[in-house]
Amino acid sequence: MFRHVPNALTGGRLLLAIVFFVMLSYYQYEMRGEPWFLIVAFVIYCIALFTDFLDGYLARKWKVEGAFGRVVDPFVDKVLVIGSFIFFAGKNFTIPHHDISQIPTNVKTITGVVPWMVVLILGRELLVTSLRGLSESSGKNFGAAFSGKLKMVFQSITILVILVYVNSLSWLSRHNWDRPATVFRDLCIWATIFITVASGLLYVQRAVALYQKPESRS
């Protein structure tokens, strides 16, 4: 009975991801920007983070770790993170950008996330997944490292910060807190980009070390 609970939580997190993206797809800043869309998205993401911790904890406690959780759990994490940043860089979160004459000349994202950041995050995940598959197919252990877990923490915090920032921007502007809030948002984003790149390089270094290690002879 207990052995199915962690897998059920993982599957439930995938369903939460679908609802989360529905909320982001219906939201559009300064058009159909109902605040409750992002409030619901924030709550769902928090629940998803909690279930991510809980399913791993229960699987280890009950010793029911299996192939399903090993494959689907990181898959759902990547879907949530990459999907979030894709939405943040998309049209639902764009605002007009004015020049000194106050004429709108371009658009920018209210989230602070731009497409190249999404490409970088996606590229890092594809690279590490490829390295892991190649290594484990040849019998080498290539499990998750601390840097990868730290990267997930930074990414998740940044996603929550962006959701709160966008939903609270009107209130922040009225109270003259919009500038420091924007600086804090950007610090979170750039810290996430840094740890994403750094963890990817560490995985590459680890893969190189694995393949340079001489095979043991029986």
What does this structure look like?
This protein has helices at residues 5-26, 35-61, 67-88, 115-137, 146-174, 178-212; strands at residues 94-98, 104-109. The protein has six helices and two strands; from the N terminus they run αααββααα. The radius of gyration is 20 Å and the shape is globular. The N and C termini lie far apart (41 Å). It has one domain: Four Helix Bundle (Hemerythrin (Met), subunit A) (Up-down Bundle), CATH 1.20.120. Helix 5 packs antiparallel against helix 6 (178-212). By secondary structure, the protein is mostly helical. Strand 1 (94-98) and strand 2 form a beta hairpin. The mean pLDDT is 87. It has a two-stranded antiparallel ribbon.
Rg (C-alpha, Å): 20 Å
- End-to-end gap: 41 Å
Low-confidence stretches: none
Report helical residue fraction.
Answer: over 70%
CATH T-level fold name: Four Helix Bundle (Hemerythrin (Met), subunit A)
Order of helices and strands: HHHEEHHH
Report the CATH C-level class.
Answer: Mainly Alpha
Number of strands: 2
The number of distinct structural domains comes to: 1
Strand order of the largest sheet: 1-2
CATH architecture name: Up-down Bundle
What structural class do the secondary elements suggest?
A: mainly alpha
